[in-house]
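hey m, so remember when u said the tokens were messed up on ur end? i reran from scratch. heres the input so u can diff it against urs
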Amino acid sequence: MDYHSRARELHRLLTEYQRAYYIDGRPLVSDLEYDRLFDELSRIEAEHPETRTPDSPTQRVGSDLSSDFPEVEHTIPVLSLDKAYSDTEILSWISKTTKNTGENLSFVLEEKLDGFSIVLYYEKGLLARAVTRGNGFIGNDVTANVKTIYSVPLRLNEDIDIAVRGEVFLRKAEFERINATLSEPYANPRNLAAGTIRRNKSSETAQVPLSIYVYEGFWADGGENTDHIQILSRLRSLGLPVDPHLSYFCKTKEEARQRLEKASLEGRPGSFDDIPQAIVDYTSARRDLPYEIDGLVVKVNELSTREELGYTEHHPRWAIAYKFEAPQAQTQVLDIDVQVGRTGRITPMARIRETLLSGSTIRNITLHNQDYVDELELAVGDTVAISKRGDVIPAVENVIEKNEVGNTTWQMPKTCPVCGSQIIKRGAHHFCPNYDCAAQAKGRLAFFCAKGQMDMEGLGPRTIEILYDNGFVKSIGDLYRFDFNLMKGLKGFGGTEGKTIENIKTSILQSRKTPFRNVLVSLGIPEFGKKAVDLVCDAGFDSMSKLLEIADNKDEQCLSTIKGIGPITANLIIDGLNSPTTRKLIDELREAGLRMEDEKKDNSNLEQIFQGQSWCVTGTFENFNPRSKAMEEIKKRGGTEVSGVSRKTSCLLAGSGAGSKLDKAREFGVRIVTEQEFLKMIGTAEEPEEPKKEEEQLSLF
């Protein structure tokens, strides 16, 4: 008997039957026949281990070996979503987004499954890693457990490199069946799904019939997709399960219908006017779904516009989540005052009668801005309904009963309550324009010293306030000039508490060694948080001098071509770097000895032949697998990376399969470099690494 041929045939049949049953919902054989074939393949693989492949159907049963979950860095954006709680907010967001881009956009509405977020990384079509969302930058590798989910393809229908975002969930019927057998039942299907994915033994995970729907795909070569519905169609053609309950909205319903048909997608077409009714229909149909959803997601369909809109530190600007109504409670507004932040933004805060809601005690609720207060017609003394939006953020939903003392709708004060400056309004928010306002200064100091920025132990908000109020430290630069021994006369900082002062002095001394990227974040420039800083530095703009040169030239395009930045963020970064106060701070930090460039490997032996050049890399290569290795060689020699081709791009390194980027390079007259030409350029001073064998599971992302 030819065991190899028989194993391959059984592999093919079982994979086909699994897909038909778990993804298409149309069983092709009886359970008895399936089990007979499965047992035969298991027996062959046990007797002839060389026939077992990483994508064998037998790999879904899991292992009894305990495993930990190592941390893995994500290489795609794994961010949260901005949230809305009414169809009015959704329509306002659509209108604002369309106005900001000036384009004829369309929008996709999808169910927001109440499950467990996961990222699937496929390399040459084979499932290489499954990683939890984690903190959005680093997650846990749970590949062995995810392989037990039958609706997750172990091998795609094409040998491509792709990262896919999805949601693992447990259907209601299965949840009720399993929960009934447990001595300590789970609160909901989401908790059971999350706990199952983190089981130490994948054989235990395999006992729970989890499912998955995927909703975003990121091709390693950029792909040829132009819009989101095309991505969904491609994901489905690759064998990945896609939620069929989507809606698609264009200016007219007919246009939406035609474009869905062209993408071969099921879905509900509509015009923008149909969105409110769609939200009502999804909300009412929620209880009859076989799985839990906790909201809806609205996304810009056009990928070029997504690139233009970019991301904030926490969420993409091209998508928003509509959350279903949160649990509510009643309370009374006792007072409304304002807080002044480090940027001068003034936020009204409601002080309410202490109220227990969703397991926590609520005393204070942000009111966002005057427009929000006006919409509620909120006054001190009113009885209000409050909720915890997203089960986290307290919010005033509406006024139930007006106060009996005649208080009218609360109004923002005319002057800053801290410094007395005349308040100004920019957009929907009010600001104190006085940069030297004590509240702003304290906020900037606290932000600079906080964990995640300069991480200065002993310099928390309370200590900052004491230092400021006593006139010792008025600005960030003062932290490096002040003699902290003078604090010994202050209560809590002298005598036996002198250790506190020593800790502060040590923290400030050590801050001079803080990585450059943290220094950039600590400047407090709007939209220039950790994610944006990493994107910019990884693109080669890894020193203060390079960034200030971009700012001096107001070269927005130089930054906006970096994937994930976009023109809005680029302009905010440039404006922030050009601020006189930021320039002064940078000079003070440079004088204090803080790092002004990113640490990098010593490439002094390499000639900087690409200095001042911007390179884009596309396609696949024989000597650079993954292709990021080619970009590493470019950066070592002084070049910078851009994700797209523009007229300012210096060179396009084009491998086999180069698509639209190659066409753009030809259109713009950008120099096109082949792999062999590139190898000659970099010479033999440092040979690129040999590509790994396929069985070593390339790390492509």
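this time it looks ok to me. Residues 328-431 form a domain with the OB fold (Dihydrolipoamide Acetyltransferase, E2P) fold (CATH 2.40.50.140). if urs says something different then somethings off w ur setup not the seq
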